[in-house]
Amino acid sequence: MLEKFRPSLFVDRASSLQADRMKSLGIRGLILDIDNTIAQSGRSRPEPWLQDWLAEIRQAGIQTSIVSNSGAKRSARFGELLGMPAFARAGKPSVRRLLEAAACMGTPPENTAVIGDQIFTDIWGANRAGMKSIRVKPVRPWREPVQVMFKRLLEWPLCLYFRSRGKTGGKGEDLY
User: Fold this and answer.
1) Fewer Cβ in 10 A, N or C end of the chain?
2) Cα separation, 140 vs 142, whole angstroms
3) Considering the chain, what is the average pLDDT of its residues?
């Protein structure tokens, strides 16, 4: 039952993942969430480290896109700033926009990974779509809408449970 919420990998932030490591995992397409994954919730710009990391990822031939539950204007702005397609109002954990993004990048689901900060949206959606799921620590968890903070309270025991199951936990690696 809980396996559908288990991330393939845990990392501090997206930039913890090196391009060669992703390629060794078979990742050819990378879908990024916005809020508290690549930008502080509500901010209009990505985190400063993101551009250098994306350059490395793209140089390795890994395609990138954004899939966010945010509105169209916010998602489009991030897509424009980062030079990648953006899919808004995704309704994650719905798989529709995730599969659209993979198709846009030309990568099959099994060679696509989703990087996000929320178990019940990003990770569950990626797992449902047959993609690899990579959970990052939230950029600024104390600056979020109250409903997201409530979900964090529910996620916390799950993360502890998955991490307590050992290095691989039966599915992924714990890279924290």
Assistant:
1) N
2) 6
3) 88
Write out pLDDT tens, residues 114-152: 999 999 999 999 999 999 999 998 887 666 667 777 777
3-class DSSP assignment, residue 1: coil
**Tens digits of per-residue pLDDT, 16-43?**
899 999 999 899 999 999 999 999 888 8
Domains of the chain: 2-167 (3.40.50.1000)
String of b and e for 39-71 (b: at least 16 CB within 10 Å)?
A: bbbebeebbeebeebbeebeeeebbbbbbbbbe
Residue 45 CB contacts under 8 Å (≥ 6 apart), including other chains: 39, 81
